[in-house]
Specification:
heterodimer, A: alpha+beta, 2 domains, seven-stranded mixed beta sheet, 38% strand, B: mainly alpha, Cytochrome C Oxidase, Chain A
Chain lengths: 182, 574
């Protein structure tokens, strides 16, 4: 009967080292591989069964054209103003246009709970990060790209939009508002 | 060079029996010293960052906070880690294989390029001409010399990687070893291959960006993010491959850890090369430029085989250590091998903590956050730096610190200074990083953004209220961060004093067991085992490791599905 040879990782293995895998290792590799397939499968699965996906409707858009669209949206549905920022109440199901720019989320939004909106996100200048606080819904916002996400607010409340991508010295001042009512 | 003068450039290491050539040895020393200097810059910046982010103290003004944050990322993640990796390559190639250093003058040229590049970058950052953070996403713009510095550094690194491949050829052709290259060299080779892929992405992104900063051409912000992360993420894969190689190396040096199966370990390394996420989709999961099919495919290539590779090493590394310990006679029960491990040898404790922190925290959080939909509630929150401080800091950096305790006596041939402090250092650093990362992860779960100067949002048009739990985890973050910085400064003090003022490792010091020499250097454990004894240990198997990976797997499942559950409470979005 041949005896087993062990060596460390600094020793150059001699001859043919392509040996059969031990039982314990083989079992672990099989379990790990099965788990990796589960990790993969969960992502397509959630697109069919889950409610939170980053798919969206995505277009290229120039910052100028997007700014103009936001301005039209604000003029159409403006209901007031707070801290110098217009508050806008779009009808249920509407396309909502929000822009991130140094250093402001524009405009503030008033939405209805349980209703679907298409929330468009884009930036005028540099990268920004849309972070709905404290819900913790986060999306990257880029100049030149319109990210249209169909959202359904599931509870009423006074929410904030924090910028969570570094956008310059006034980054921390960039706080927006979303009011959700019953 | 004549044969005699070439022969004089070698010494025989009295501990390991390795033939060490003088050129590689000096290159290892120079790269390691510069790496530690970069760590000092990064650690001092880190103290400023922790004391600012800890809202109760809020030390730095906004401009300096972002400047220090830029400097911290570059000096730690790029300069410390990559200079040290160059040292690892000069060791794993010419030293482990016992060959001469190919083209030593070119190697010094590469080193000089990297140093010049690093100095240029730091000069730009600290003079306020590159307040763009580590990622420098356009249209944010830095001084052209910032991008040029990065390019010079990368070119130098690419040359050094090329010389590592050359050393493989030289050793093979000059027959300095028989059989196949040792596993450590094999692992380092995969790290070097990934480094080439990474550095090509670097060239593809930094050269056009440099030109753009000179007003030549244009940069699309989304394309930049995609190619930049081909650099930014793949470079972390270099770190993983290098760190795992160091785990195997230290397992052997500290307790005579063995390679259970060369085939399995090498296949796992190959998976890293084949399945690194080239476009690094993990960072683009909530970006507008790509669709879901692209995101899902590039996150996983349908099978997550790079994750599988880490899970395989996560078994074979502790199993190799368990077997090594069982071969040394610690055969009792499930865990005698672990209880009787040399916990006061910083080479061992650092390696083991690195393995545990990387696996249990870094790996589990990384895979979870890199899931397309779960990323919606984590992207750019403090959960992200919480995650990567347990991979690249608690994992890679701690492994590199641990191996330094063997590099100092074996390559610098100096006894480690402040030996009592050195024994404690991995615990202080590892413990600090764990506490800090847990603090960051919970702050992120509460919605706190990363890379943000003011958690009180003072002066913003709408007030932001933080939950009281936020205050509590901030304290955990702050105390952990300061503890980790203390651990880093302890390491730096030990390394610098050892290199410049350390007592030499003499035959007498080795014989008498003088302090400052880790036990694996005093008496190297057997590296090869055969015979009846080995056969018996082989039959016993690795019961302890089986229990450890079972616990790991349960934690993984629990964390992963808890996150899906949390996700289901969010607003519907799609």
């Amino acid at each position: 009967m041949s005896t087993h040879e062990f060596h460390s990782a600094v020793v150059a293995p001699q001859g043919i080292w392509w040996a059969p895998t031990g039982r314990q290792e083989k079992t672990w590799i099989a379990i790990a591989f099965a788990w990796c397939l589960v990790l993969f499968a969960m992502m397509p699965f959630w697109h069919f069964k889950g409610g939170q996906n980053p798919s969206g409707i995505r277009y290229r858009v120039t910052p100028e054209a997007y700014e103009a669209r936001v301005e039209r949206f604000v003029n159409e549905y403006k209901i007031g103003e707070e801290s110098g920022i217009p508050i806008v109440e779009p009808p249920p199901g509407a396309d909502v246009y929000l822009v991130g720019r140094q250093w402001q989320w524009y405009p503030a939004l008033k939405l209805k709970k349980g209703v679907q909106y298409t929330l468009h996100l884009s930036a005028s200048d540099v990268n920004h990060g849309f972070s709905l606080y404290p819900v913790n819904l986060n999306f990257q916002v880029l100049p030149g790209y319109d990210y249209g996400l169909r959202v359904v607010p599931n509870r009423a409340g006074d929410f904030r939009i924090i910028c969570n991508e570094f956008c310059g010295i006034g980054h921390h001042l960039m706080v927006g508002k979303v009011l959700v009512v019953e | 060079m004549t044969v005699e003068s070439l022969a004089q450039r070698f010494r025989l290491c009295p501990v390991t029996g390795l033939k060490v050539n003088r050129d590689s040895e000096l290159l290892i020393q120079a790269n390691a010293v510069v790496a530690v200097v970069a760590m000092l810059v990064g650690a001092l910046a880190a103290i400023g960052l922790v004391l600012t982010r800890w809202q109760a103290i809020h030390l730095l003004p906004a401009d300096q906070y972002y400047r220090y944050l830029t400097a911290h990322g570059l000096n730690m993640l790029i300069f410390w880690v990559i200079f040290f990796e160059m040292a690892v390559l000069y060791f794993a190639g010419p030293v482990v294989l016992g060959c001469r250093q190919p083209a030593p003058k070119l190697a010094w040229g590469a080193f000089a390029l990297m140093v010049v590049g690093a100095i240029m970058v730091d000069a730009m950052v600290f003079t306020g001409r590159a307040d763009v953070l580590f990622t420098s996403y356009p249209p944010l713009r830095a001084d052209p010399n910032y991008y040029l510095g990065v390019i010079l550094f990368a070119v130098g690194a690419l040359i050094a990687v090329g010389l590592f491949f050359a050393s493989l050829v030289v050793a093979k052709r000059e027959k300095t070893y028989t059989g196949s290259v040792p596993l450590v060299t094999f692992g380092a080779t995969t790290a070097a291959i990934i480094a080439v892929i990474t550095l090509l992405h670097g060239a593809a992104v930094y050269i056009p960006t440099w030109l753009w900063s000179l007003d030549i051409g244009n940069i699309d912000p989304q394309v930049y993010r995609m190619v930049w992360w081909g650099l930014g993420h793949s470079s972390q894969q270099i770190n993983v491959a290098a760190m795992v190689s160091v785990w195997y190396l230290l397992g052997g040096l500290t307790v005579g850890g063995v390679v259970l199966n060369e085939k399995v370990s090498r296949m796992a390394f190959v998976l890293y090369v084949l399945f690194i996420s080239m476009a690094s989709a993990h960072h683009l999961l909530v970006d507008p430029g790509m669709g879901s099919a692209w995101k899902i495919w590039n996150t996983s290539y349908a099978m997550y085989l790079a994750v599988l590779a880490s899970m395989v090493h996560g078994f074979t590394v502790p199993a190799g250590i368990e077997t090594g310990q069982r071969l040394r006679g610690y055969t009792g029960g499930l865990f005698e091998w672990l209880r009787k491990a040399p916990w006061s040898d910083p080479g061992f404790s650092g390696m083991w903590l690195s393995l545990v922190i990387f696996g249990f925290m870094g790996g589990i959080t990384g895979v979870t956050l890199g899931t397309e939909q779960i990323n919606i509630m984590a992207h750019n929150t403090l959960r992200i730096p919480g995650h990567f401080h347990t991979t690249v800091v608690g994992g890679t950096t701690l492994a590199f610190m641990a191996v330094s305790y063997y590099v100092l006596p074996l390559i610098f041939q100096k006894r480690v200074a402040f030996w009592g402090m050195a024994r404690l250092q991995p615990y202080v650093f590892g413990g600090g990083i764990v506490a800090m990362a847990i603090g960051m992860i919970f702050m992120g779960i509460l919605g706190m953004p990363r890379r943000h100067w003011d958690s009180s949002f003072a002066g913003a048009p709408f007030a932001v209220e933080l939950p009281p739990a936020g205050e509590l985890v901030q304290v955990l973050f702050g105390v952990g961060g300061l503890l980790a910085a203390t651990g880093a400064l302890m390491f730096i003090a030990i390394a610098v004093v050892t290199v410049f003022f350390g007592k030499p490792v003499t035959a007498e010091a080795l014989a008498t067991g003088a302090s400052g020499i880790p036990q694996g250097v005093l008496k190297l454990p057997a590296q090869v085992h055969t015979g009846e004894h080995a056969e018996r240990v082989h039959r016993e198997g690795v019961k302890g490791t089986v229990v450890l990976v079972a616990i790991f797997f349960l934690c993984f499942i629990l964390y992963y599905f808890t996150n899906w559950k949390m996700l289901s409470f969010l607003w519907k979005v799609g």
